[in-house]
Amino acid sequence: MLTHTWTKLTFERRNYLPDATLGIILLNQTLTGFNSLELPWLHNRPDVSCIPEGIYYAVKHQSPSKGPVIWIMDVPDRTWIYMHVINTILDSDGCIGPGTGLGHLFGLPAIMNSKEAFNALYDRLPDRFTVEITSR
Description:
By secondary structure, the protein is mostly beta strands.
């Protein structure tokens, strides 16, 4: 388990649903006012499941296809897990989308104002920090 005084971004999962995982986002144990949208829990299967709960290192990164992202590193049995701008669960292959609210778009679980939420979080985060994935 990682122990240090770095900045910590927490994704607190509140609802594991059959088609999505919904949660809230905290920064250093303080509510940010943002929600998170992930794929459902399907035993960490690549491209169809959210990632396991745990503590990970994260860095700001420039993705060739997605632009600025938060790269969540060293996820067991997974590669290229990001927090990035998404609209619906179809925009995630294991990644996490932040937003100002949750809803549905084209009948699919969706996150609202993802770009606004991502930019606000990205601007508040240092270049390196930890990410905690937990549930309540």
